[in-house]
Amino acid sequence: MSVAHPSQVPVFKLYGETRHWPTPDLLHCESIPERSRLHDWHIRPHRHADLVHVLHVAGGQVELELEGTRQTLRGPLAIVVPAMTIHGFRFSQDIEGHVVTLAQPLAEQLGQRLGEWAGVLRHADCHRLAQPRKARRLATLVEQIDAEYRQPAPGRDRMLEALVQSLTIELSRLAMPHAPPGTAPGPRQRDRGHEHLASFQALIEAQYRHQPRIERFAEQLGMSSAHLNALCRRLADRSALQLLHERLLLEAKRQLTYTNMTVSQVADSLGFSEPAYFTRFFKRNTGLAPRDFRLRQHTGATT
């Protein structure tokens, strides 16, 4: 079978699917068998505009396609798949492990807090866990993330934040044999289009609550709004405005789920001039009014 060419590879919103991010969290965690058995153990080559995958393969076999290379590997191992990286998997039916997916805002936060240590999340790589001690440490971290993710508890967000930071540093340590002693791995080289997209996403993260016009974003990037839109459609399969709206929607879901703010307060905090406008925006993108979404989230958490 030939390796997929980038222009032929679809841009997905989740793990091998086109459905929207399923959670108000900035992190998603599930076992590899949960998702892969739905696809007959084969996730075809695809890429994500704004998601980072960390796969922990505890046992079993995976045929991995990563950025044009293909290899067959057995666990234990860790696989890092940055945004816009072409990747595909064919798992054995005895596969064991988890996939931790980070939304771009969380990846940006890790970069701000950890500096170069977060560079490992921008470099597509596969790390074999040959040393039992390292394998146990990584497995324990991933299991803790999975347990905390699935069972909400007081301090859950802070605990997940700490665990994901620890996971990132552990991955960086695995990558360090490939770098000069005493240094953290640096970011992967990317073409200017990807650099511009990353800069735009960083601007969205810093300014989305003010809802700047796309022309303002383009001006800050030193390009026309038409160029910015073309870039976003080529690399992210969405317009610049859609990327801004997706970040607003994600934050709205988080606030409706995890705070006691009224709908009007949420609308105001996200830069909407009127609650009615926010309600129309939210319902158009989710199919639910904000109050109905909040009720469904809270009902689901107690069942």
UniProtKB/TrEMBL annotation:
Gene3D superfamilies, sorted: Homeodomain-like, Jelly Rolls
InterPro entries reported in the protein's UniProt record: AraC-bd (IPR003313), Cupin_HpaA-like_N (IPR047264), Homeodomain-like_sf (IPR009057), HTH-like (IPR037923), HTH_AraC (IPR018060), RmlC-like_jellyroll (IPR014710), Tscrpt_reg_AraC-type_HTH (IPR020449)
HTH araC/xylS-type domain mapped to chain residues: 198-296
Keywords noted in UniProt: Activator, DNA-binding, Transcription, Transcription regulation
GO molecular function terms listed in the Swiss-Prot or TrEMBL record: DNA-binding transcription factor activity; sequence-specific DNA binding
Keyword hit for Transcription regulation: yes
Name of this protein: Helix-turn-helix domain-containing protein
Species of provenance: Billgrantia pellis
